[in-house]
Automatic annotation (TrEMBL):
GO terms for cellular component: nucleolus; ribonuclease MRP complex; ribonuclease P complex. Component of ribonuclease P, a ribonucleoprotein complex that generates mature tRNA molecules by cleaving their 5'-ends. GO terms for biological process: rRNA processing; tRNA 5'-leader removal. The gene is POP4. It comes from the Eukaryota. Belongs to the eukaryotic/archaeal RNase P protein component 1 family. Component of nuclear RNase P and RNase MRP ribonucleoproteins. RNase P consists of a catalytic RNA moiety and 10 different protein chains; POP1, POP4, POP5, POP7, RPP14, RPP21, RPP25, RPP30, RPP38 and RPP40. Within the RNase P complex, POP1, POP7 and RPP25 form the 'finger' subcomplex, POP5, RPP14, RPP40 and homodimeric RPP30 form the 'palm' subcomplex, and RPP21, POP4 and RPP38 form the 'wrist' subcomplex. All subunits of the RNase P complex interact with the catalytic RNA. Several subunits of RNase P are also part of the RNase MRP complex. It comes from Spheniscus mendiculus. InterPro entries: RNase_P/MRP_Rpp29-subunit, RNase_P/MRP_Rpp29_sf, Rof/RNase_P-like, Rpp29/RNP1. Pfam families: RNase_P-MRP_p29. This is Ribonuclease P protein subunit p29.
Length: 200
């Protein structure tokens, strides 16, 4: 058993450790007047900030050539299965493309649809060299289409000042590129006017 002095020293040390914010005189004052209620001080947990995953910038994507198609992959036959998938996607989107389907309903669906895999033809253009280009859309950007032709040539065709036509199951739709300068992801949320000014 401890002696009285050792016990007193132990109690003082224990109280000082248990009540770090109080001075020694205050602790002694409490001991002589009333029972001691020990206080508990919980350590504040520091919240770890979540690091946001940053994607690549446009410059980094260009430098890494993320959107470039290798020359050996630039073959029309490679992308024919993609076109077949696109046709099935449009049929499902338009509920079968039945003969009695209303043209404006199909047109509205096509305006918001993903066009990767569609076969398009440039029917009108301010630049005559673009007229007649036909091929599968491989990539759609805000201002251009990248099209692979049957001659295995990758063409970059601007949307501005060009009119494109696409045909599926006998339904022909025309796309006025000047009114179509949007990314595919933005187009799905855009409201297109049924009637508007057409300029080429």
């Amino acid at each position: 058993p401890q002696g009285s002095e050792e016990a007193k020293a132990f109690v003082n040390a224990f109280l000082k450790r248990s009540m770090p914010k109080m001075k020694d005189e205050a602790i002694q004052d409490i001991l002589t007047r009333k029972a001691v209620v020990l206080e508990h001080y919980s350590k504040k947990k520091t919240k770890q900030k979540r690091k946001k995953t940053k994607g690549f910038t446009a410059k980094q994507r260009r430098e890494m050539h993320l959107f470039e198609i290798e020359p050996e992959q630039q073959r029309y036959t490679i992308f024919l299965p993609l076109h077949e998938l696109w046709k099935q996607y449009i049929r499902d989107l338009c509920h079968g493309l039945k003969p009695d389907a209303q043209p404006h309903m199909v047109q509205g669906k096509l305006l918001k649809a993903d066009l990767h895999g569609a076969i398009v033809t440039v029917t009108k253009s301010k630049c005559p060299s673009y007229v007649g280009i036909t091929g599968i859309i491989l990539q759609e950007f805000k201002h251009v289409f990248k099209i692979i032709t049957k001659e295995d040539k990758l063409k970059v065709v601007p949307k501005l000042n060009n009119v494109f036509s696409l045909e599926i199951d006998g339904f022909i739709s025309y796309i006025y590129g000047s009114k179509f300068q949007l990314r595919a992801s933005e187009r799905s949320a855009k409201k297109f006017k049924l009637k508007g000014t057409i300029d080429l």
